Amino acid sequence: VISRFSPSLIQHMSSELAPSLPLQEDFVYHWKAITHYYIETSDDKAPVTDTNIPSHLEQMLDILVQEENERESGETGPCMEYLLHHKILETLYTLGKADCPPGMKQQVLVFYTKLLGRIRQPLLPHINVHRPVQKLIRLCGEVLATPTENEEIQFLCIVCAKLKQDPYLVNFFLENKMKSLASKGVPNVISEDTLKGQDSLSTDTGQSRQPEELSGATGMEQTELEDEPPHQMDHLSTSLDNLSVTSLPEASVVRPNQDYNLVNSLLNLTRSPDGRIAVKACEGLMLLVSLPEPAAAKCLTQSTCLSPLLVFSHKEDASAFPGKRALISFLSWFDYCDQLIKEAQKTAAVALAKAVHERFFIGVMEPQLMQTSEMGILTSTALLHRIVRQVTSDVLLQEMVFFILGEQREPETLAEISRHPLRHRLIEHCDHISDEISIMTLRMFEHLLQKPNEHILYNLVLRNLEERNYTEYKPLCPEDKDVVENGLIAGAVDLEEDPLFTDISPENTLPNQEWLSSSPPATPDHPKNDGKTEVHKIVNSFLCLVPDDAKSSYHVEGTGYDTYLRDAHRQFRDYCAICLRWEWPGSPKALEKCNLEAAFFEGHFLKVLFDRMGRILDQPYDVNLQVTSVLSRLSLFPHPHIHEYLLDPYVNLAPGCRSLFSVIVRVVGDLMLRIQRIQDFTPKLLLVRKRLLGLEPEGPIIDHITLLEGVIVLEEFCKELAAIAFVKYHASSTP
């Protein structure tokens, strides 16, 4: 009859009926009950759940917790002393490794996890704790989808949490590789002598370590790491198929004689088919890379396969999740890599980011971006655009910026614009024959400009404006001083007296009382006055660029200039916050100190943007929106040279130079000639605007639709530039 009761129930009944023993005697009793099982039992095929072992282990844990609660904080009791002195954890490791009886590995993992989690005093500094813990770590992740996977990840994560509490302890887990290589082979058969008596309980199995090959530690097959160039991407699914990487030969990698098996085991489990296990493994890695121990960071980046794994072998994902799901899988993994590098200790972060740069950006992305297939270019640029938007780690962002733009900071010359081939190719794609490629590449640059990295703007624009050699220096003569005192700039042309602007009407200008607090800062070239005239004229110069006959916004409610003021104020504030730590000057470099004799080249990026702006009347509406969006982003940056070059209509341009304002003036001149040849221009223009706003249903195709849409974009862009100019002057005059 008694055989029908479970072993755990029998154990519980016997514990209740037994006399109360001192804790240490009780603890030793439960441990000897476990060891006697191996001595007395001949049937080693019965599962561990059919034995009393799980109950004895649970009782041992309860006793250790009770003992700690009854003693002063930090004091080690006799039960814990017994566990440490008799190397109980070492013996349990050996039993777990042999998985004898079946399921014992699972029980050992649970015991270790609960011991580390429930005992408050620091255990890992003890050699008889961290040594068996390290060896048990090596057993985790050896085979995917095993019955013990859940217990393995719980154990690894509790170890990571303990290291996060006391980072110096991680040094106990950097194994000496040469020592482990010299001591191969742990017998899986547990001898009877091993389990007899107190002396045999202290048998040291600590020197037995199985070496692991680093390639095996990641679970990657060699075929996944073949040294072959990625194929061209013809569509999204194939692009993700080809996100494989090249593994450096083991012999060519200089590694210290250390293993970081906690990382290797977690890396194995990131590939678990159980998503919950993989996520927990990623969380464990996040904890480890953030540890502030230099030795661990060095070992992590040089002696584990974390860096190669971060650069994504996606053949599995692409085959299991073709198309959209493969993309989601890739972006989720990239987001994890970004966060991992963001949290990592500085040395580790730099090494991991460089690995992503070399193995993924250069090894995988660059060939895709440099190809000639339009579909391949569009797909790879869309992926790059998404990556640009997604990166938040400063270290990874820096590597990505160097990949896209190069590291050059000297002024560009027309003869050397292809010095960094990828940069040259991407900028050329902003003016591609395919409108889709142009729009996608422009979007990528627009989001790149919003990233908090000073090199982006300097490389694309600022390095070419440093010497202000787009200007023609005209020293003030006595006659000019009177002009300056009256609120004008020496040598500037009064646009309101220019024949191009003779149709200015009062409602298109802003009343003087709106500019009372908008005085610009004093500079040698712009002497301080009350500020009203200069700001008033600059803003009105943009507002009045498009002639009245070509304007349509005043016929539609809610499309006034004031709507741009609110957006410009918010955006300028955001840009100022980004640029604050870059310590930009508050005023332009004095012309006397500039090298005005050097030939001026606006740079490849501005050249392409200005060229496209010059064709605004002949380009598709969506292309024009994207071109003007990038130019307005550039205009928002609070650098005096950018402001002068892009937003000052009165700058004295050197011969052969052009500015944003001069480009728009040429477009307006062309527009005024073409308007005269279009019958019913104004009614057609208004109808197109209402259709774009959804105020009118789509109807018959209107002739000259591209030009009409271009005129509307031009008018809105001029209002936007006027708003940005006003907001920037207003901000500079506010303390």
TrEMBL record:
Annotated spans, Disordered: 194-233, 502-531
InterPro entries: FHIP, FHIP_C, FHIP_KELAA_motif
Domain FHF complex subunit HOOK-interacting protein C-terminal: 602-694
Segments of skewed composition (Polar residues): 197-209, 505-520
Family (UniProt): Belongs to the FHIP family.
Name of the protein: FHF complex subunit HOOK interacting protein 2A
Organism: Pan troglodytes
